[in-house]
């Protein structure tokens, strides 16, 4: 049931297209949606019964706002923009880039063939993406041998090595006619678009000619290139009679989960596929349309010449946004591929359900146990902090992030403390919390739903001092308490720092234990890295009798302090260092090497 406040807002909703933004107790945007009729769509969340992720979303909504647009198309565009800006928890979100490399023909007087990770509007030709980096590299090496362009850095007055190997047209010592480059580029484009028969025929002719001239080494090299075509290119089944680059999208929805399959048809072959699985709030058709538009707005994404989707998807809307033909095949090979993508989507989802049944209680369920025990609003994201040092030296802090009970290592952060030069847990906590959440506020980044400190009331009070007094933030803060055996016991929470007991057999208890162990491990690992680096880099400067000239002389000769420590006294004396200083250097460095092999356990603040 909606609160009285929400009921009043629902009564004022307009019968117009636009976007709506759902907010939780902390005023964070947790879902963005679009609607042809805002009044009907938004009211449906509170006036109907729901299950799965939709029910979870509705349980967390305490407020919403709307943005009216002129058309449904404008609402669609605005929805994508808002999702990318706010990254709401309940929306489908895609990474900014594909992560796959592309083959590029550069746009310059003497063009090159390159493997790149970034697409720029520089006039070059891009082919890909290639999910198999090794295959992309091998393809470039093949093309550089068969259809060379320029492999050297440019004019240098003499032929380069690649020219003598037949892999460069000679821009290193002469002006290559533009017609020669154009002819090679046409052949490269034809090959990369799937017309490999011409290249294979040409290689066979060249191999036979080399064999007739008894140039067997050259003939063997050409034979290997033919085998590359047979092994890498032609082994992929031809699935189309044309060479149009096209992407195929299909889906399967069950129990509030959407499974999406994307087939990439390149060079008349199924080059790769992607599978995605999301719990969704809206209809499958709306979610898939949003997914497709976001998919092509990522960095380093080349649009195909055709997109195939099921008949239930609004292809005209997607086509008007992406300016690429969007079609639904009715028969033939394309229809078979679309159906195959749908069958694959179903298989992936059915397999995932079996795993979800096992993981649900350990992840999302465990998170809810913790928030219920603390008496706070349901949440998803926990950030935990810990400090580490050795006898007050090399002070560092570390932060780990768990989302729905699972660690997200991409969000982990390390901190070298700047304002603290001795073991002071209050000062260390003040600095790291101030740095972390000041930055999140400046970047308008999402805040956590709960902060856990690996310590007692001293650290908790320091956190509250920064959050509430300085930043006016009201994020719940709890302390992870250990017993006499250094094992997780319970949580400290509330104005009076009272103990909150967790059932030792519950998944919530195990989650707190995992978080505490993980942040402790991460902090100690980072500290050891810092301590090792500092101890090695500054050791020569602290040895009596070793000045800047002697230090540089030693490093030039041996390269590292480890190799210096392994040298003999006579080796150091040969550099003009007297015997006493040489002995002191070796004794000091060997003692430090022993310390690094058997480090003292860092002390936690």
Describe the fold and architecture:
Interacts with UvrB in an incision complex. Belongs to the UvrC family. With about 600 residues, the protein is α+β, with helices and mostly antiparallel strands. It has five domains: about 5-85, GIY-YIG endonuclease, CATH 3.40.1440; about 100-235, no CATH class; about 245-360, Nucleotidyltransferase, domain 5, CATH 3.30.420; about 365-530, UvrC, RNAse H endonuclease domain (Nucleotidyltransferase, domain 5); about 540-595, DNA polymerase, domain 1 (Orthogonal Bundle). It has 21 helices and 19 strands. The protein has helices at about 5-10, 40-45, 50-60, 70-85, 135-145, 160-165, 180-190, 195-210, 215-235, 285-295, 315-320, 330-360, 365-375, 425-445, 455-470, 505-535, 540, 550-560, 560-565, 570-575, 580-595; strands at about 20-25, 30-35, 65-70, 100-105, 115, 125, 245-255, 255-265, 270-280, 305-310, 325, 380-390, 395-405, 405, 415, 450-455, 475-480, 490-495, 500. Strands 12, 13, 14, 15, 16, 17, 18 and 19 form an eight-stranded mixed sheet that branches. Strand 8 and strand 9 form a beta hairpin. The model is unreliable at about 235-240 (pLDDT under 50).
CATH superfamily of the largest domain: UvrC, RNAse H endonuclease domain
Number of strands: 19
Q: Main beta sheet, described?
A: 8 strands, mixed
The share of residues in extended strands comes to 15-25%
Helix content: 40-55%
In the CATH classification, which architecture of the largest domain applies?
2-Layer Sandwich
**Apparent shape:** flat
Structural class: alpha+beta
Q: Identify the CATH class of the largest domain.
A: Alpha Beta
- Per the CATH scheme, the topology name of the largest domain is Nucleotidyltransferase, domain 5
């Amino acid at each position: 049931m909606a609160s009285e406040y929400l009921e009043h807002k629902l009564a004022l909703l307009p019968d117009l297209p636009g976007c709506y933004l759902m907010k939780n107790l902390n005023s964070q945007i947790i879902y963005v949606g679009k609607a042809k009729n805002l009044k009907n769509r938004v009211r449906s969340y509170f006036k109907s019964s729901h299950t799965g992720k939709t029910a979870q979303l509705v349980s967390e909504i305490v407020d919403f706002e709307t943005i009216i647009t002129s058309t449904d198309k404008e609402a669609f565009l605005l929805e994508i923009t808002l999702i990318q800006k706010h990254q709401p928890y309940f929306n489908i979100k895609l990474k900014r880039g594909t992560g796959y490399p592309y083959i590029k023909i550069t746009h310059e007087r003497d063009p090159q063939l390159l493997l790149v990770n970034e697409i720029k509007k520089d006039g070059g030709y891009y082919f890909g993406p290639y999910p198999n980096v090794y295959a992309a590299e091998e393809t470039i090496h093949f093309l550089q041998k068969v259809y060379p362009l320029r492999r050297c850095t440019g004019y240098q007055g003499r032929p380069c090595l690649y020219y003598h190997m037949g892999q460069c047209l000679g821009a290193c010592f002469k002006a290559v006619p533009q017609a020669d480059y154009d002819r090679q580029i046409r052949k490269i484009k034809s090959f990369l678009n799937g017309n490999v028969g011409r290249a294979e025929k040409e290689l066979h002719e060249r191999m036979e000619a080399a064999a007739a001239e008894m140039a067997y080494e050259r003939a063997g090299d050409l034979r290997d290139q033919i085998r590359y075509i047979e092994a890498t290119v032609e082994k992929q089944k031809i699935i189309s009679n044309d060479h149009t680059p096209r992407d195929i999208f299909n889906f399967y929805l069950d129990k509030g989960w959407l499974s999406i399959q994307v087939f990439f048809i390149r060079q008349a072959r199924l080059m790769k596929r992607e599978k995605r699985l999301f719990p969704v709030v809206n209809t499958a058709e709306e979610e898939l349309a949003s997914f497709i538009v976001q998919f092509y707005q990522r960095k380093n994404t080349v649009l195909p010449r055709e997109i195939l989707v099921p008949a239930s998807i609004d292809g005209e809307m997607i086509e008007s946004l992406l300016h690429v033909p969007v079609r639904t095949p009715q028969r033939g090979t394309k229809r078979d591929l679309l159906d195959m993508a749908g069958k694959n989507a179903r298989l992936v989802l059915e397999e995932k359900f079996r795993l979800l049944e096992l993981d649900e209680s350990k992840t999302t369920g465990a998170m809810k146990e913790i928030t219920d025990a603390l008496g706070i609003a349901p949440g998803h994201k926990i950030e935990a902090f810990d400090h580490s040092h050795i006898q007050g030296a090399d002070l560092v802090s570390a932060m780990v992030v768990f989302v729905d009970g699972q660690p997200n290592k991409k969000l982990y952060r390390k901190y070298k403390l700047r304002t603290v030069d001795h073991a002071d847990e209050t000062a260390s906590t003040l600095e790291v919390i101030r740095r972390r959440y000041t930055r999140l506020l400046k970047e308008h980044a999402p805040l956590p739903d709960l902060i856990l400190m690996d310590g007692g009331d001293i650290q908790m009070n320091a956190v509250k001092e920064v959050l509430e007094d300085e930043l006016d933030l009201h994020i719940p803060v709890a302390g992870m308490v250990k017993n006499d055996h250094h094992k997780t016991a319970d949580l400290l929470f509330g104005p009076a720092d009272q103990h909150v007991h967790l059932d030792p057999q519950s998944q919530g208890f195990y989650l707190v234990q995992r978080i505490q162990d993980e942040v402790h491990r991460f902090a100690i690992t980072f500290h050891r890295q810092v301590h090792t680096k500092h101890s090695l880099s500054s050791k020569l400067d602290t040895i009596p009798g070793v000045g800047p000239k002697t230090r540089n002389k030693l490093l030039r000769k041996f390269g590292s302090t480890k190799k210096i420590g392994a040298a003999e006294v006579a080796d150091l004396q040969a550099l003009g260092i007297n015997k006493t200083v040489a002995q002191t250097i070796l004794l000091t460095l060997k003692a430090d090497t022993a310390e690094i092999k058997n480090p003292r356990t860092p002390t936690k603040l």
